[in-house]
Every structure is written in structure tokens, then in C-alpha cells.
């Protein structure tokens, strides 16, 4: 839970500083809220749902992307005009959406059978 709060706080900070589009932060935060809600429901049914490798990759990519944006694209800006920080953020966004989809797909049947 602490990692989700840290990511959300960093995203909100970046949005408030106009360094990240609001919709990007909302998609990432919404995914975290949805998955946390699913885990809460599963837990109330005495069903523990484990994080998968895509969720772990997602987290690493989010941390790398947020760090790059916080560093204002440095050191990348010293060698290229390409906004590598924003590119990393979009890669993290894609992995966030995919990992959320994959998590729901893989755990939907478990939750449905227990209701």
C-alpha cells in the first residue's frame, strides 16, 4: 500500500507542477484503486490474490519514469532533444494498463466462483 501512495503522491506533484498530463496520472491512480478494491473484495472472501510479474515490472517502470520526470529529463537532455522522460512515462502507462487488464483477467474467475 505504501508504494501505491508514494506513486500517487509523486504523480499528483508532477501534475501540479505541469510536468505530467492529468489524464496520465488519473489512469495510473485509477488502476491502483481498482486493483486494491479487487484485492480487498478477495481478502474479504478469504482469497489472497498475488501480484504477478507484470505488476512488478509496472512498478519498476513507474519509478524509473517518475524519477526521469523529476530530474527534468536529465541526463538525457545532455545528449538528445528527445523527451526520454515522457517516453518512459508513456511506456510505464502502457504497462500499467496492461498489468491491470492482465490481473483482472487472471483473477476474475477466482472472484466469481467465491461470490
- Poorly predicted tracts of residues: none
| Average pLDDT level | 90
Q: CA-to-CA gap between the ends?
A: 25 Å
Number of domains: 1
What integer value in Å does the Rg equal?
Answer: 16 Å
* Overall strand count: 0
Strand content: under 5%
The DSSP helix count reads 4
Which descriptor suits the 3D outline?
Answer: elongated
Main β-sheet: number of strands, strand sense, barrel status? none
State the order of secondary-structure elements, H for helix, E for strand. HHHH
Q: What portion of residues is helical?
A: over 70%
Q: Which structural category do the helix and sheet elements fall into? A: mainly alpha
Please tell me about this protein's structure.
The protein has 115 residues and is an all-alpha fold. The protein contains 4 helices and no strands. The mean pLDDT is 90. The two termini are 25 Å apart. 75% of the residues lie in helices and 0% in strands. It has helices at residues 2-16, 22-44, 53-70, 84-113. The chain has one domain (2-113). The longest helix is centred in the last third of the chain and has 30 residues, at 84-113.
Give the gist of this structure.
With 115 residues, the protein is an all-alpha fold. It has one domain. The chain is built from four helices and no strands.
Task: Please render the helix and strand layout as text.
Layout lengths: L1 H15 L5 H23 L8 H18 L13 H30 L2
Helix pairs in contact: 1-2, 1-3, 2-4, 3-4
Amino acid at each position: 500500500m505504501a508504494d501505491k501512495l508514494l506513486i500517487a503522491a509523486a504523480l499528483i506533484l508532477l501534475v501540479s507542477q505541469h510536468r505530467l498530463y492529468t489524464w496520465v496520472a488519473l489512469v495510473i491512480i485509477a488502476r491502483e484503486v481498482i486493483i486494491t478494491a479487487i484485492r480487498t473484495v478477495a481478502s474479504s472472501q478469504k482469497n489472497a490474490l498475488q501480484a504477478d510479474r507484470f505488476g512488478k515490472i509496472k512498478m519498476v517502470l513507474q519509478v524509473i519514469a517518475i524519477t526521469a520526470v523529476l530530474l527534468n529529463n536529465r541526463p538525457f537532455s545532455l545528449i538528445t532533444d528527445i523527451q526520454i522522460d515522457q517516453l518512459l512515462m508513456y511506456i510505464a502507462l502502457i504497462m500499467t494498463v496492461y498489468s491491470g487488464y492482465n490481473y483482472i483477467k487472471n483473477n476474475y474467475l477466482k472472484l466469481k466462483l467465491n461470490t
